Amino acid sequence: MPIIWCRVTGITVLATILAFPAQQPVSPSPESAEAPDTVLHSSYLLGPDDQLVIRALESEEFSEKPVQIDMSGFIRLPLVGRVRASGMTVEQLENELHDRLKMFVKDPQVSVTVTEFRSQPVSIIGAVNKPGVVQLQGRKTLIEVLSLAGGLSTDAGHSIKITRQVEYGQIPLPGASLDPTGRFSVAEVELKSAIEARNPQENVLIKPHDVVSVPRAELVYVIGQVKKAGGFVLRERETLSVLQALSLAEGLDRMAKPQNARILRAIPDAPKRTEISVDIKKILEGKADDVQLQSQDILFVPASTAKSATLRGVEAAIQIGTGVVIWR
Fold it and tell me: pLDDT tens digit string along 160-170?
């Protein structure tokens, strides 16, 4: 480290120059890196119901008992009286208390710790693993809040709906609009786009009292003689074809009679579902077009009576040990 001596108007000035290699970035040491607690300390805005512990050296009146911010945003302390805390960061509140205590204590040392975060609730409902209310602790984005709710469940739909009180501003998304009451800003984000980070702007900052709703996906059902009967999620797709649904059901069972399959479809205001015949055998052979299923459709694959009877006979024969039969 070179040291340069220079004399200016009779005064000796010592200038220390730190010489770094050219075009070589300097990595911060672990000690100088900003810790998460420090970030929270400087960014979190206190609010009603938050619980604090306040410590002050040389001030026995401060007992370090928890202090709760009241609904008006104030706390009441010995010596200093009633102090507004809502809307301040922890650091700002420490400075305010320091200035007030100077009248009673020489160079007071004040520290404020948030022991319970209660003032910035966000409701997360719908198809998430842990629906409920979480508390914002600093800046949180949409994806971070979904992570706090345990992530998405397997039946999550293709969009996320955000509802925000207008006093916190309009949601900064192109499709955002006011609800009929004019009290809430409402916007939707495409789920797949948000998760894949196609458009970083969709990963908006979440505000206190936001409601994040993940609707459950529409389903189609496959039942009967298939290997894995059940409901299958459409996700971002509006429809699913018969062959796609059959693939999700892991194919036909050996007792299936695919030429007699049926789609059971719900019709609005109709007392029961309508039946649509579909010949899966011809579709598999390429002799008929694939058929599109709609949300809540039920694809039913019946059993072949003859095959069923034969299989029962085979199983009985095996059980009594009278012979070995190979099913073809």
Answer: 999 999 999 99
Burial class (CB within 10 angstroms; exposed 0-12, middle 13-18, buried 19+) of 240: buried
Q: Where are the alpha helices (DSSP H) in the chain?
A: 36-43, 90-101, 142-148, 191-195, 242-248, 280-284, 305-320
Q: Which two tokens stand for residue 32?
A: 């100088």
Rounded CA-CA distance 247/314 in Å is 28
Please provide residue 265's backbone torsions phi and psi, each rounded to the nearest 5 degrees: -120, 130
| pLDDT at residue 90 tops 60 | yes
Mean pLDDT value of segment 85-112? 90
Dihedral (C-alpha) 300, 306, 312, 313: value to the nearest 10 degrees? -170
Give the residue among 137, 193, 141 at the shortest CA–CA distance from 162.
141
What distance in Å separates the CA atoms of residue 243 and residue 248, rounded to the nearest whole number? 9
Q: Tokens representing 87?
A: 């809307």
